[in-house]
User: Fold Endoglucanase from Pseudokineococcus basanitobsidens.
Amino acid sequence: MTRTSQPTRTAAALVVAVMAATGLAGAVPATAADGDPVEQITNGSFDDGLTGWNAYPAASVVDGRGCVDVPAGSGPYSAAITQQVPLEAGETYRLTMEALTQPATAANVRVVLQAGADLNYLQFLPAQKLALTPEPTDVAATFTPEQDYATAELAVQQDITNAAAYRLCVDDVSLTGGAEPEAYVPDTGSRLKVNQLGYLPRGPKVATLVTDATEPVRWQLLRADGRRLSRGTSAPRGVDPTAGTNVYTIDLSGVPVSGEGFTLVADGATSEPFDIAADLYESLRTDAKTFFFTNRSGIAVSDELAPGYGRQAGHVGVAPNQGDVAVPCLPLGDDAQQLYVDQGGQPWTCERTHDVSGGWYDAGDHGKYVVNGGIAVAQLMQEYERSLTAPTADRGALADGTLSIPEAGNGVPDLLDEARWELEWMLRMQVPAGEQYAGMAYHKVADADWTGLPMLPADDPQPRRLYRPSTAATLNLAAAAAQGARLWRPYDAAFADELLAAARTAYAAAQATPDLYAPAPDAAVDPNPGSGPYDDDDVTDELYWAAAELYLTTGEDAVEADVLASPWHTADAFPAEGFSWGDVAALGRLDLATVRSDLPDRDRVRASVVAGADGYLADQAGEPFGQPYAPEGDVYAWGSNNAVSNNLQVVATAYDLTGDARYGDAVLRGMDYLLGRNALAQSYVTGYGERDSHQQHSRWYAHSLDPSLPPPPDGTLAGGPNSTAATSGDPVAGPLLGGCAAQLCYLDDIGSWSTNEITVNWNAPLSWLASFAADLDRGVQDPAAHRR
Ligand code: 9MR
Assistant:
């Protein structure tokens, strides 16, 4: 999959005039140790696809060249191929490449170097704009910067609005000169890693020290005023391969204090400051839900309700948007149709358009995907349902009026209102009666091609497409709608009826068409798909989840039989890798364990959740940073923080089932990892901790590209370390993260879509966990409350 992730240039200020010499005949670039000039460009031959490059709007490798397709009427700077390079003052550099366009263009393409927060131009290379033809033109320039630029951007870009569509391609791009590129050294913060939000007074308080020491190291806990409060000795844990370093753990659990601004000191290192407080997680319980409101499609986001986040409604049929009130099905002839064919299917389309407005945008893109929406809305509903079933839950914390959303005050718990926004969209994604695959759900509605960053939802000019229904999406609809039906029943019986009817129809449709799979991506066929694939060719787990939800809502014998007959009912639903959008049996199992029913083997089901949690506790015990995540080979997945969170939800559910404090403690230790006790000393939650992720990949929380836009709202979880980032095509991670130890495969950079995106299905478990931890805050840990 190839995705564009860099900004469409808007600011054109030509301010910086720093170049001393351009086109200096005879200037000699610096040489490397072996005598060859130092090459600064990664993958200038495009032999490795688009690795190292950023290209938009529609990028691909054609005939071995890196190309972008520029539609007619594209605005200035809206199409480009770029790469970040370091420049050193006083060094002489030589740039060479070949460039072509098909068909020939007027003087419409320019080669520039730009840098700085506002990307002012440093230099045009060469001084003239290029009139390119299908015959490759050699481009060459020599220059000497007067100032250092850690990251300048080389861009071959469209200059002015073009009348006719064209394809721009470059190849053999070389920039020689300067010093050998420095090896990437991650910013790992203090060697003493703590939960930067803090610790609960009665909870575990463990930190991790990175050190070369071989003997136990003394530590001290200091108050904000520097006075020592406590001290002790750390425990050696050896080399942690997920961090690539030797570590010790420090346990302050016995310290009976509360307050603000504590620091831990050991081995010459001082930790980030942290609090010890009972109400630590209350604000996160609320903040983690803001992202759903500000990610809503089809409604203006009011700045009064979400200060700093006000924006126009996206995809309500107002130009330049081309959706979502009347979206056509994928047209025949689209590249994506070939994926169906290649994978044994038929081209698919439909005649009429559909209103699929509303719902949440999935992530930092403008796509809306039923499978990912399904798991996200389900986990939010699980959070709400937990407030009804868990003995220690604060029943009022999720009540009406607890969130800042338009529906607050309508007499319905706000979290259910937020869920309804997505559920109503999912109902719109159900194929109407009379059409092919009636009753199933379209897999997704998304842009035809990837867009650049930044871009507010209302500014997205791409055509929208409805994709072929999939059995997975259909079962997500069945499961989420069935769950919604039982939760909405006390508040709106008509809506509950509508949900249940849709769930039944979807369930039947999925059984009639059990193997209509969303196709896997293939960049050779569809290089710029405009949306994520969410491909899945095993939907037995989705079927189990849907059956479980229908059973819990209706108690009917037929679905009970389906639950009991599913291989997933007895299989291990809690793998080390964690459940996920493509692996959802756990959702059914968790609900069968926690929601009251007459299921004959309910005790066994409850025990299976506890056993799953025990597995995660064992994994956690082996991890010196406390994450309950030990995937095969220490290969951290795309969105590893989601795996950590989902595993924590299982552990927390074991606490709800047993009241055993070991599980509650384990959840808090896992939260420590997400909030800073990790190899990068990174709090992955925006607004929480001294070193928080706040430059996540998003088209509209794009503050780091456009200061007039906000960063992600407080309480937004970054996807986190991804061991496959360097080979995913991620233009920022590609050159930097090759061979990284798992925990270090992360960049808080808006361009790094494989490590630093944000999604509804990642924030939903964060929200669930925040509620759980906030309930623990309140200290309601009465074991008697756990008797059924
Ligand atoms: O979360 C998804 C991850 O599990 C997949 O490996 C990855 C590649 O298919 O896609 C992730 O989902 C992205 C989706 O395709 C498009 N919207 C943003 C999602 C988060 O990166």
